[in-house]
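Give me structure tokens for this 342-residue protein.
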Amino acid sequence: MAKARIVDASHPQAIQEAAEIIRTGGLVAFPTETVYGLGADACNPIAVARIFEVKNRPSIDPLIVHVADAEEARLYGDFSYRFAPELMTKFWPGPLTMVVRRSGVVPPIVTAGLDTVAIRVPSHPSALALIQAAGRAVAAPSANPFGYVSPTQADHVSEQLADRIDLILNGGPCTVGVESTILSLAEPTPRILRAGGVTVEQLEAVVGALEHSAEQGARPEAPGQLRRHYATRTRLQILRDDDPRAKPGQDERVGLLTLVPLHRLLPYASVEVLSDSGDMREAAANLFAALRRLDSQGLDRLVAHPIPEIGLGVAIMDRLRRCSAPASDDADYQDKTIPPYC
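Here you go.
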């Protein structure tokens, strides 16, 4: 298969080309406000199966269905639940995915055989233009090998998947930078299944107190629930600055991920600062690109300083915890041969 071209998503011709690929069963990497997605026609089981094949994604891990608006969402799921209309109005388009009972038009491969489906309306103009031009819903996980750090730039996709997909739409860096929040409405009390771009505080202002998912069980209820995920090839540890294990040993090359700049020089081989001012939105937007830069340097290990779990800090720490989980976690599902950068 020829290497996928990267085309400018702001050009209408590029959107039309991508839409035709979706309609004819192909795979397109496209920008959203959260991360880059790997999209296929959500109602074409063969096309969706290619997503799982290309990513080496376990078939038990459901996908998110991306639609153009709330009206279209109702074709694929039951949004008669309490709070659903208000959540649609307040957070769509945007980084909120709602899990509801699926309709009969959604193939079981999309939902991993569950009777629920995860649906959202992305806010990135190129994502919306692609869905509208294709004339159908787009099933899409992140456009990267399964379990690895999510892509937030078109080059991230090209480095690892260009020879396995059909086209890459370049819409620039993702502005949110972490995946969507996943909220289940398919039960009496709304429940957060994955922390993400819409904060707990924002949701509770609409629905009141929320339940949070327990530790992932035998199979995921939604994407991003496996204990080890978003993982770098280089081992990452979450350690406080005053933890002696955070300091490099003799002849050890260690990379540091920190929210704000350090006040003193320390012997790290590389340092990535997520936000000079400590702004959580900026930190979230920079997270995955910073992890990729650290991971590309052949270091002995990586250290991340904990981040306050307020607002988007909850989603950032969720990603760091899953990244730092032992490689033995979820051994039945994970591909341990994550391909290196080209």
